[in-house]
Amino acid sequence: MSTNKPNTPYAQREQGYREKALKMYPWVCGRCAREFSGKRLSELTVHHKDHNHDNNPEDGSNWELLCLYCHDNEHSRYTDNQYQAEARPGSDLGPKETFKAFANLGDLLKGKQD
């Protein structure tokens, strides 16, 4: 459940949960395990696991720290998955089988032909 008001500017909201996440979690990317400190700490981002930036529970259960590269990769994979789920190549084609070669095999073996 979000504690942020819907009209809170994104930058302000992001700064609040970023500070909390950096206090909660070690400064390590959750994917590539690179460690961050000093000036490079700005390369560590807060990723929302459910991709909902308004879902910011106080316990941080919807967050994980990811470096810029892994964060971009995660969002690219999510976007690709959305497009692939909507339309798959060939999904608009009709039934795969139109002719059943052995449909009347039983009748042919018994000597009954049309």
Automatic annotation (TrEMBL):
Keywords linked to the UniProt accession: Endonuclease, Hydrolase, Nuclease
InterPro entries registered for this protein in UniProt: HNH, HNH_nuc
Protein family (similarity comment): Belongs to the HNH nuclease family.
Pfam families per the UniProt record, alphabetical: HNH (PF01844)
GO molecular function: endonuclease activity; hydrolase activity; nucleic acid binding; zinc ion binding
Protein name: Putative HNH nuclease YajD
Domain HNH nuclease: 16-72
CC per GO annotation: cytosol
PANTHER family: HNH NUCLEASE YAJD-RELATED
Domain of life: Bacteria
Keyword Nuclease: yes
